[in-house]
Design a protein that fits this description.
Layout (H helix, E strand, L loop, with lengths): L1 H58 L6 H16 L8 H25 L3 H4 L2 H36 L3 H8 L11
Helix pairs in contact: 1-2, 1-3, 1-5, 2-3
């Protein structure tokens, strides 16, 4: 009788250990996804913080195309108001990505327009801001890649059997990906 009790207790202990280990691993990987998302938001925020400085430098050259400045400013405003509350919300990620890409596109238009104004391109302040902007764009690519990798690791772990039973019963949802990096 004692032998059966010990075997039963042993099996219960193994199942409990597996459950807690699996749950803690899911929480850890979910936090890595959140941390990676936070880094994505940080680098986009850094880029958005540079825009007023760039616009200010460009505005100081009165003959510059005003519509381009307005487009950049509006795109930045929309991007700043677009947030993702839940990383499993594919639509929210896509809307965030669309707003950020719009900022990037309008900034590219601004930079192309600046080609026609050598005095702006020669400005030391503009050159510094342009270098910082290039660095931001590179960090954005890196952080988006890091986020997708963290999301992939989390998603794979919660979809594997028998982990999927725990994930489904405790409400873990797949993290959404950035479509294009």
């Amino acid at each position: 009788m004692n032998k059966i009790l010990y075997i039963t207790l042993g099996i219960i202990a193994i199942v409990a250990f597996w459950f807690f280990y699996t749950y803690n691993t899911m929480v850890d990987r979910e936090e890595k996804v959140r941390k990676s998302w936070s880094q994505v938001e940080n680098v986009y925020q850094r880029r958005n913080d540079l825009i007023p400085n760039i616009v200010s430098v460009v505005k100081s050259y009165s003959e510059f195309e005003k519509s381009t400045i307005v487009n950049v400013t509006e795109a930045r405003s929309i991007a700043l108001s677009t947030h993702v509350e839940d990383n499993s919300d594919v639509e929210a990620i896509n809307n965030f990505d669309k707003a950020q890409k719009n900022v990037g596109n309008t900034l590219n238009q601004l930079m192309v327009s600046i080609e026609n104004y050598p005095e702006i391109k020669a400005s030391e302040h503009f050159l510094t801001l342009n270098t910082e902007l290039d660095g931001c764009e590179n960090r954005i690519k890196v952080e988006r890649r890091n986020y997708n990798k963290a999301a992939e690791n989390f998603n794979r772990f919660i979809r594997l059997f028998p982990n999927s039973m725990i994930a489904n019963s405790l409400g873990f949802k797949k993290a959404a990906y950035f479509e294009n990096i």
